[in-house]
Amino acid sequence: MNPSDLMRLARGPLFYFALLFFIAGMLYRLTRVVGFGWKKDLTKPKKSKIAGSLLAFVKSVIIWPFIPRVEGSLKRNLVAYFAGGLFHLALFLVVFLGAAHMLVWKSLLGFGWPTLPLPVVDWLAAAGIVALLVLFINRLVNPVLRTISHAAEYLNLLFVFLPMLTGFFLTHHLLLPYEAMFALHVLSVDWLLIWIPLSRISHFVFYFFSKAIYGAEFARRGAQP
Amino acid sequence: MPERETIYEVLQKRGVTRRDFLKMTILLTGALGLEYSQVERVRVALETKPRVPVIWLEFQDCAGCTESISRSQNPTLTSLVLNDLTIEYHETLMAAAGFQAEGAKEAAMEQYYGEYVLVVEGSIPQGAGGVYCTVGGRTALDILRETAEGAFAVIAVGNCASFGGLPKASPNPTDAVGVMELVTDKPVINIPGCPAIPEAMTNTIAHIIALGSIPELDYLKRPMAFYSHTIHDRCLRRGFYEAGLFADSFGDEGYRKGYCLYKLGCKGPTTYNACSSLKWNGGTSFPVESGHPCLGCSEPNFWDNGGFYQGQSAPLQRPEVSVVGIAAGAGVVLGAGAAALNASAKKKAREQAKAASHQKEEEKEE
Ligand code: SF4
């Protein structure tokens, strides 16, 4: 199979399947979690819990979720917070504001938006890659993290790393011809789409749940029975 | 068979002086993309090799590549290729027709067996035994097999002959394919494009005539001399691409300022061809220069590589809303099922715990 055929396969049927798997998989996870239900609260909350949830979201919009702001957690593992913050920031900006990525969204959603200049995207991508490597090393070095890390955690890092690396190589015409790298980039994204619902990378959805629940908890201000 | 005249001898008879001949050799060497040191090689070849006959076949085509080659702007090459090489058979260009023409072709095939260059324009339909394209009552499939057998090399000009082109576009009703799918025991050279760049065609033919060898090819059998760079590599709008300055729609401000056409669907980054360096009509312009995104016409499946105005990075297949709905529905149903199982397990556990504690209490009371 030549690079041109591989590219068609990756952008065509494989992407199609991966996207549907992703949608079905994420909704499965979501419904299942929602199905757990909330514990009945027998005490009267001090403030409105709904307002508390909303406040948590507003806060997270103003103070972007990936910027560390909790002093205590900052002290615990500085590297994880900064590298983690940078990684998420870079990833989001590149995935949504890179011109090539926006065109993918546009083709799926039917509308587009302005994008960032290539050099900016490029530096962000490089920063994201470095941050991910730092996170990996941190996971190996930090005794607590190492104890709680298993194959799945390392695979998560690897499967996110691959699209980032191939994407960077692709724009810089490194290692392989452009279309071969393009094919590998899309293939790695296809795989990631399948992997996400099966793994903890799905936290990008559950993040909103924990935000809501913690917001409600803060508003409640009662002791746990 | 009488000794055939060499190319130089033919030129001499036409009154070309030695001086002009040497000039021509130098120009040709340059046009072939060879280094200056290769002039000798070309000169010797022209002095010793007889003219190579060409048979040009047209199948499922529009004759656009023929139109294109007839506008080759390099006069030396035009004269070399169109006058000095002998085109024995070309349906669009020849005066003869009918049985006479077919007869001439057969005679040439016999006389120059193993020597002639076969040029194919248009794709070959395989469906229904190949009846979708017949010439003189015979299928394209048949004619190609027969003519390719005695050829020195086969040159597929245009996207159709190279990769199937328009006729192969989904759903490919005639089961059309390019030449290289059918001719596997001969060197095949692809010069894709819609149409192919005239100089890419003439120079490749000239290379075979002058050097008697096949030029260096890429993995899609395209001559490296013309297909080793993408349109994007040498595009005059490239600076705007790098700076992130794009035209968002035809005629908007960015468009009028000559910004990059990537967001209008330009396929330049994945399209290998010489448009942005050789350009068209004697170096006048090329599509991207005149304001249209590259369609990617020198790549396989170019009609099915996403829409022409769809981003080059966009997926090729997008699931319909209904399909997404089914996938989403399946996910929700499975999730709800799992949740129900969880809930019943929880209930059971609770009941068991209750029963156990009752039992304990009862035991205590006793
Ligand atoms: S117009 Fe097309 S080929 Fe030119 S720089 Fe933009 S994307 Fe590349």
Any overview of this molecule?
The complex is a heterodimer of chains A (225) and B (366). Chain A is mostly helical and 225 residues long. Chain A contains ten helices and no strands. In chain A, helix 4 (78-97) crosses helix 5 (99-109). The longest helix of chain A is centred in the N-terminal third of the chain and has 33 residues, at 3-35. The radius of gyration of chain A is 20 Å and the shape is globular. A five-stranded parallel β-sheet of chain B has the order 2-1-3-7-9, with helices on both faces. Chain B has a two-stranded antiparallel ribbon with strand order 4-8. In chain B, strands 5-6 form a two-stranded antiparallel sheet. Chain B has helices at 7-13, 18-31, 39-48, 64-69, 75-84, 98-111, 140-149, 158-163, 179-182, 198-211, 224-227, 238-243, 253-256, 275-278, 321-365, and strands spanning 53-58, 86-90, 117-121, 124-125, 134-135, 138-139, 153-157, 176-177, 188-191. Chain B starts with 6 loop residues before the first helix and ends with a helix. Chain B is an alpha/beta fold and 366 residues long. Chain B has two domains: 51-227, NADH:ubiquinone oxidoreductase-like, 20kDa subunit (Rossmann fold), CATH 3.40.50; 232-342, Cytochrome-c3 Hydrogenase, Chain A, domain 2, CATH 4.10.480. Chains A and B meet through helix 1, helix 5, helix 6 and helix 9 of A and helix 12 and helix 15 of B. The complex binds iron/sulfur cluster (SF4). The site of iron/sulfur cluster has 14 residues of chain B, from helix 12.
Summed up, what is this model?
The complex is a heterodimer of chains A (225) and B (366). Chain A is mainly alpha-helical.
Name the descriptors.
heterodimer; A: 225 residues; mainly alpha; 10 helices; B: 366 residues; alpha/beta; Rossmann fold; Cytochrome-c3 Hydrogenase, Chain A, domain 2; 5-stranded parallel sheet; two-stranded antiparallel ribbon; 43% helix; 9% strand; elongated; binds iron/sulfur cluster
